[in-house]
Amino acid sequence: MRFLILRILTHSELGMFHEYRRQKKEKSKQRAVNVDADVVDRVFPAAKDSDQIDMNLMYDTDHGIAQARQWFKRQDKNWRLEGNCPKDKYYHFVDAGCLFAMEVDSGSVPASGSWAVFPADHPVTKAILAHGESGGLAKSAMIALHDEEGERAWQVLEEARPDLFTRIGGGNLTKVTSARKGNRGVKLDPNPSRLVKILASVGHTLPSAVADIVDNAISNDATKIDITFGRPDGGHGRWLSITDNGTGMDPDNLSEAMRIGSDIEYETKSLGKYGYGLKGASWSQAKVFTVVTKRPDKPASHLTWDSDDMDGWVAKSDPLDVWEQQATAIKDRGTVVLWKDMRPPQAMPTARGISPHSAEIMLLERHLALVFHRFLEGRAAGRKAVAISINKNSIKPNNPCGHPLASAYDIKTIRIPTESEDGKVQVQAYLLPSEDEINNHHKSDGPEGVRQALDLIGLHGKRNETQGLFIYRHDRLIKWGGWHQMWATNDEKTKLARVIVDFDKVLDDPLKIDISKQKVELPQQLQEEIKKIADVVRRESQRKYRKMATPGLPLPRGGDVSSEGTKPIAPTPVGSSADQKSRVQPEPQPRTIVKAVKTNKFVWKVTKGLTGALDVQVSDLDPNLSALVKQIDNDSHAIAHLAAFLGGLDEVEVQKFLLAKKSI
Fold first, then answer.
1. Helix count (H) and strand count (E) of the chain?
2. What local confidence, expressed as pLDDT, does residue 545 receive?
3. Which of 243, 302, 409, 453 is the most exposed place for a label (fewest CB within 10 A)?
4. Cis amide bond preceding 110, omega within 30
5. CA gap 115, 409 in Å, rounded
6. How many alpha carbons fall within 13 Å on the CB side of residue 559?
7. String of b and e for 116-149 (b: at least 16 CB within 10 Å)?
8. Contact (CB, 8 A) for 210 and 339
9. Could you tell me if 620 and 602 are in contact, meaning their C-beta atoms sit under 8 angstroms apart?
10. Cα–Cα distance for residue pair 121/243, rounded to 1 Å
11. How far apart are CA 379 and CA 475, in angstroms?
């Protein structure tokens, strides 16, 4: 078993190096590196707590690479790496924050491997900590990555130090490789039905699988998506179709789309990733799926995959049954995905007063309303508004921070280095209204209106479980709820805190987006930056909670002045009549979006979003500017001209004088 162990060293561990002690930096007498018990349990599962785990490890010296016997030894609750305290001056740089990387093959006794130390500002350290593989270091002092789990980190280490580290598939730890004689082998085609089962086990639910197909539709410029979930007792079994009015495909494009791991070049704003979504999502739900597609003034074409009839990997184009033709009819252009012989879930969902099938539709609607709310609102940059319906019932967007009383903090942009270019992550915190505030705000709507408002803002669950991060890729919500590895639990007092995190496909690999686009791993560097932003709104939530728990104290409306000197203000409510009037026909080109924020750091801020849209944040430091923004909010052209004007003022640093005047 092969592992890569990573640790950020602390002052208490650096006494292991004589050079550190000679520089009189030592703050303790410890002569070992701490090793977490869960790391030892994973790397050496057969070891008992009473054992000493011996290893032969290579490491740097003043005279090159050497090898020494070292061991893991139990110390209280954890372990320590002991047995070798290098005297070499090579380690003059060691200090707190250095990265300790250790490669171990624990499949033999004694174990073998190597270790090295890299300065905090070393390119190796920066590259590893900027990748999602390092995310575990945000909550644990040490992590152990097994094989492909640390593929990127191993690559970085092998490229920098091939004398100590070997990347995945690069050979064994002793750098000895064996070659096959001859240049002929045995051709082994995969078993189609078994491979389909493997590909279908990506972890999709029905809602997430449908969302993957909707991704494809939106990426092909669809503005109308109709989902039909047929009654299971309607004579055709359990089936579902997803019809869009996108660009459609010609026969060659269709063939490539049906290929497993299709060779598709995704455009910059595409929601796709691996060329796998159509097949993986479909097979996760159905044994048979058909894709029918049509371009304007061209005949429709179709192909079918049947997991029970895939010999030779031939996609069928047999004529469709009459009901299938009706379910996949296309007027002018677009694409239909038809799932047949669908597998029911292990446990059918239930809800009071409705059938399990209706409960499935309800859960599907809630999922799509949340995941695609920006597209449904017409707020996805570079996209027209998208309408989605299920069985002819339109889906209304559910913006997790769109309540009129939700308070927005100013947007922060974080840069993440990648191999090709810097990626940008935009982070914005929101403070939600309390239950009492919602009750008061919706009192005129009656008890049912209050209940619906509470249900929407709680995402149809417990609000305590939906606090935390809401992570978007190209305006599509891919993961939500919880604080990842930054805080271990969801505190009841912080349930009013939500943080929006936006990124684009440049960061797919560093954030380790999986095939189903349901998982994301935030690099340690990014988590540290987000934590600073989230900490402010979490404290505001705690403060509001304490006020609610203290009789006689007035509740804050829209948030109070925070301990960081910023004060949030409620944004224009999404879905309100004023909001809808201003966005009846959103344009596909980059837009200018104005947001009101409470801060004493700037009068205005003009930034370029991830997809080219201009974000204009306006504080209330200048009442005249705030009033002007409110007056022209419905005029997109006036807003664009204002953004250009403010950008010109920034070029001559006008805000310095305005802020200085305000501080007098």
1. 18, 24
2. 82
3. 453
4. yes
5. 44
6. 32
7. bbbeeeeebbbbbbbbbbbbbbbeebbbbbeeeb
8. no
9. no
10. 51
11. 8
Structural contact between residues 424 and 415, judged by C-beta atoms closer than 8 angstroms:
yes
Question: How many angstroms separate the CA atoms of 433 and 438, rounded?
Answer: 6
Q: What is the pLDDT of residues 117-152, one digit of tens each?
A: 999 999 999 999 999 999 999 888 899 998 878 989
pLDDT at 44: 85
240-244/224-229 β-pairing = antiparallel
pLDDT at 517: 63
Distances in Å between the alpha carbon of 69 and those of 82, 275, 439? 9, 48, 67
Compute the chain's Rg from CA coordinates.
29
Phi, psi at residue 146, to the nearest 5°? -100, 120
Which one is predicted more confidently, 242 or 424? 242
Task: Return d(Cα 146, Cα 61) in angstroms, integer.
Answer: 27
d(CA 662, CA 579): 32
Pairing of strands 142-146, 2-8: antiparallel
User: C-alpha dihedral over 84, 89, 95, 100, to 10 degrees?
Assistant: -50
What are the tens digits of pLDDT across the range 14-72?
Answer: 999 999 999 888 877 889 999 998 888 888 877 777 889 999 999 999 999 999 999 99
Measured distance CA(369)–CA(544) in Å, rounded: 29
Q: Is the dihedral of CA 280, 281, 284, 289 positive or negative?
A: negative
Q: Is 66 exposed, middle or buried (0-12, 13-18, 19+ CB in 10 A)?
A: middle
CA distance 480 to 420: 28
Name, in order, each residue with C-beta under 8 angstroms of 110's C-beta and a sequence gap of 6 or more. 54, 55, 56, 69
The residue among 563, 597, 538 whose CA lies nearest residue 411 is: 597
Residues in CB range of 564: below 8 A, 6 or more apart: 536
- The structure tokens listed for 257 are 């789309």
State how beta strands 614-618 and 592-596 pair: parallel
Q: Torsion over CA of 130, 135, 141 and 145, rounded to 10 degrees? A: -100
**Which pair of structure tokens corresponds to residue 63?**
């005279």
- With b for 16 or more beta-carbon neighbours within 10 A and e for fewer, the 513-543 pattern comes to bebbbbebbbbbbbbebbbebbbbbbbbbbb
Write phi, then psi, for 92 (nearest 5 degrees): -65, -25
The closest of 338, 244, 324 to 288, measured between CA atoms, is 338
